[in-house]
Amino acid sequence: MTEITQLLTALASGETEARDRLYTLLYPELKRLARSHLAGHAPMTLEPAALIHEVWLKSAGREAAQHRAQFFAHASKVMRSVIIDHVRERHADKRGGGQAEVTLSTAALEQIAPPDVLKLDDVLQMLERADGRAHQVVEMRFFGGLELEEIAELLGVSVPTIKRDWRKARAFLFDALQA
Q: What predicted TM-score, i.e. pTM, was given to this entire model?
């Protein structure tokens, strides 16, 4: 059991001093994750530290993650949500704002032209309605940076099943974003 997993377990048991140690250990990796979420975006007023603090605040009242991969999958999902909310606020501001292009990039999806983050969110919601597990795979892989093996373990299915879900999700996203 890793130190992070031990601290997550201690925190779930109510040991509040584990929270500070956990934050110290997780901060560098959370910062890397936040930077990767913001990389390639049009200029934003959102900073990595703001994303990290949002994750920390939104994780406080949530059922504790059982291990590192589960925590980072949740953290990544919160970061994406915060970015989408930020873009929506900017788009809806009273000055008219004009929708700034905010792009996401990853080597796994590089054949897809950089989509607007709001359109991507809509397409991801469509995928979730069509195939919930494929949506979870995208969340964990694309936004959480988890490996296929970690995703398979978290979802309790085989690696080949996750590979099929990943291929199906990529095809779905490609088709929907090209429309």
A: 0.65
